[in-house]
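Hey,
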Amino acid sequence: MGTVLNVVLALAVGYLIFKIGFAVLGSLARPVPAPPPTGEMRRVKLTYRCSSCGMELRVQAAVSEDPAPPRHCMDEMELVVPAE
Protein backbone atom coordinates (compact mmCIF):
# COMPACT_ATOMS: atom_id res chain seq x y z
CA MET A 1 0.00 0.00 0.00
CA GLY A 2 2.90 2.40 0.75
CA THR A 3 4.38 2.01 -2.75
CA VAL A 4 1.05 2.82 -4.44
CA LEU A 5 0.67 5.92 -2.25
CA ASN A 6 4.19 7.07 -3.12
CA VAL A 7 3.52 6.63 -6.86
CA VAL A 8 0.22 8.53 -6.67
CA LEU A 9 1.84 11.31 -4.65
CA ALA A 10 4.76 11.52 -7.11
CA LEU A 11 2.35 11.73 -10.06
CA ALA A 12 0.32 14.48 -8.35
CA VAL A 13 3.44 16.54 -7.57
CA GLY A 14 4.73 16.02 -11.13
CA TYR A 15 1.40 17.18 -12.58
CA LEU A 16 1.45 20.27 -10.32
CA ILE A 17 5.00 21.17 -11.37
CA PHE A 18 4.03 20.66 -15.03
CA LYS A 19 0.99 22.99 -14.74
CA ILE A 20 2.95 25.70 -12.90
CA GLY A 21 5.75 25.52 -15.50
CA PHE A 22 3.32 25.94 -18.39
CA ALA A 23 1.59 28.84 -16.62
CA VAL A 24 4.94 30.64 -16.16
CA LEU A 25 5.98 30.06 -19.77
CA GLY A 26 2.54 31.17 -20.99
CA SER A 27 2.79 34.44 -19.05
CA LEU A 28 6.19 35.15 -20.64
CA ALA A 29 4.82 34.56 -24.13
CA ARG A 30 2.07 37.22 -23.89
CA PRO A 31 2.86 40.51 -25.63
CA VAL A 32 3.17 43.78 -23.71
CA PRO A 33 -0.18 45.60 -23.65
CA ALA A 34 -0.55 48.64 -25.89
CA PRO A 35 -0.25 52.07 -24.27
CA PRO A 36 -3.55 53.74 -23.35
CA PRO A 37 -5.10 56.13 -25.87
CA THR A 38 -4.11 59.80 -25.84
CA GLY A 39 -5.92 61.75 -23.13
CA GLU A 40 -6.53 58.74 -20.88
CA MET A 41 -5.05 58.85 -17.38
CA ARG A 42 -1.84 56.90 -16.78
CA ARG A 43 -0.42 55.72 -13.46
CA VAL A 44 2.61 57.71 -12.35
CA LYS A 45 4.37 57.97 -9.01
CA LEU A 46 5.97 61.42 -8.74
CA THR A 47 6.62 63.53 -5.66
CA TYR A 48 7.11 67.29 -5.89
CA ARG A 49 8.32 69.76 -3.23
CA CYS A 50 7.81 73.53 -3.09
CA SER A 51 11.19 75.25 -2.67
CA SER A 52 9.58 78.25 -0.93
CA CYS A 53 7.46 76.65 1.80
CA GLY A 54 8.42 72.96 1.74
CA MET A 55 4.97 71.58 0.92
CA GLU A 56 5.10 68.18 -0.80
CA LEU A 57 2.66 66.84 -3.38
CA ARG A 58 2.40 63.31 -4.76
CA VAL A 59 1.01 62.81 -8.27
CA GLN A 60 -0.48 59.34 -8.87
CA ALA A 61 -2.27 59.77 -12.22
CA ALA A 62 -1.53 62.05 -15.17
CA VAL A 63 -2.41 62.37 -18.83
CA SER A 64 1.24 61.88 -19.86
CA GLU A 65 4.05 59.88 -18.27
CA ASP A 66 6.08 63.08 -17.78
CA PRO A 67 3.60 65.77 -16.67
CA ALA A 68 4.55 69.42 -16.22
CA PRO A 69 5.42 70.26 -12.60
CA PRO A 70 2.61 71.84 -10.57
CA ARG A 71 2.88 75.41 -9.27
CA HIS A 72 2.81 76.48 -5.61
CA CYS A 73 3.76 79.81 -4.02
CA MET A 74 3.85 81.25 -7.56
CA ASP A 75 6.80 78.97 -8.49
CA GLU A 76 7.09 75.56 -10.16
CA MET A 77 7.59 72.74 -7.68
CA GLU A 78 10.80 70.66 -7.78
CA LEU A 79 10.69 66.91 -8.51
CA VAL A 80 11.90 64.91 -5.50
CA VAL A 81 14.05 61.96 -6.54
CA PRO A 82 13.52 58.97 -4.20
CA ALA A 83 16.63 57.69 -2.41
CA GLU A 84 17.80 54.29 -3.66
